[in-house]
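User: Show me a protein chain along with its predicted structure.
Assistant: Here is one chain, sequence first, then structure tokens.
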Amino acid sequence: MATTSLSSISSLVTSTTSLSQEKPISVLTRRSSTIIRCAIVSKPIEKKKVWKRDEFPAISEKLIPGFPNKRTPIKNVKKKLDRKAKAAAWANTVFEMLREQPFYQPKEGTYMKLLGLLGKSGQPHRAHQLFDTMVEEGIEPTIELYTTLLAAYCRSKLIDDAFSILAKMKGLPLCQPDIYSYSTLIKTCVDTSRFDLVESLYKEMEGQGILPNTVTQNIVLTGYAKAEKYDQMEKVLSDMLQSSTCKPDVWTMNVILSVFGNKGQTEMMERWYEKFRDFGIEPETRTFNILIGAYGKKRMYDKMSSVMEYMRKLEFPWTTSTYNNVIEAFSDVGDAKNMEFTFEQMRTEGMKIDTKTFCCLIRGYANAGLFHKVLSIVQLAGRMDIAENTSFFNAVIFACAKANDLLEMERVYIRMKEKHCQPDVTTFSLLSEAYQKEGMTDKIYDLEQDMEKILPSGIRDESSELMDPVHDV
């Protein structure tokens, strides 16, 4: 194994040696000594299955040292929602007590805060009741109050109710919806892929003389990018570039760079980066993380290192996303050694470890054939109370399939559903591929039945294509 070590102050120096795309570079920095190491690994790691049947920790929590037999299924996201709900309940109780006092005077600001709190805690109907109480107490509704109520329904993705609030606003001369009202509703339509409604709202805005602002356009641009509607995305971007009131900003820049980065079109990504820079838009930490992720996926480790060096020079801190992107780059090629170096450095730097970190580690160890380390890293995720979302379960299912341990794979899938974590297209594709490899057509049929119950029709059609045995022929 050839290793190159270079030293510098608060910076990363890329080796001048030409590096092939099969030889990853691990970029690690220690604040105490500011030593940068670039390790080139050429020896493949021997693949060996080591866990025992029924041992996989996604179900077998008793294997975790010091862990109680009955762990609460509550994870970070649910805790956060519970805290918001409790805060809303507490605030509502205090408010009811306050209303009973003889000195109480209804105030618009108080209702505004309570409406926002109930919306954030997922209680839009309770917010509507509070709104009606406010009107009964003699407070005249305003655009801001109606928009806050509208946002409460939008947060819970209750589009019909949100449109009902919008209709009420349009019927009140002093509460006509403004750009903030429309932007709030447009974001919900985008998040739920209701682009037909987005177009109708744009026409409605145009009829009322309301021009979309940069935030509105960026919301729509992001939605089109995620839905891979590139023609519509290009039209929105073109309108922004030609507009005098709705200029693109760093959010716009990040969306466009992400599109080309995710598609592996790094040259186009670089061209657009230069275009935005010429337009006077300054990059931010997220911009650099997008570049690092794109270069890592294409195994362009020299460019990945150069961006990290540039971040140090500009005094942009490396974040959790920075480290995750580097870990993911090594994970994809099964480079366990450099992946571990980066993870340990991440912990040394005091970075927050999140679900994506563990997803990358699980996949990386699976790609390297180090299944005993998959076991250990899932146990560590449990001890650190990492949220087990769809991506996490998909990573574990990937590892089980890689180990040809279909029994554990099925148990992980069952647990996923028990924890009300909805499977997605990736989940069904991983399971189907594993069953196809073993010729288990009955299992594929059962999986298709599950898919029909869980996935929306549009996404289901896409997944069915992936599950079709002759699809790749």
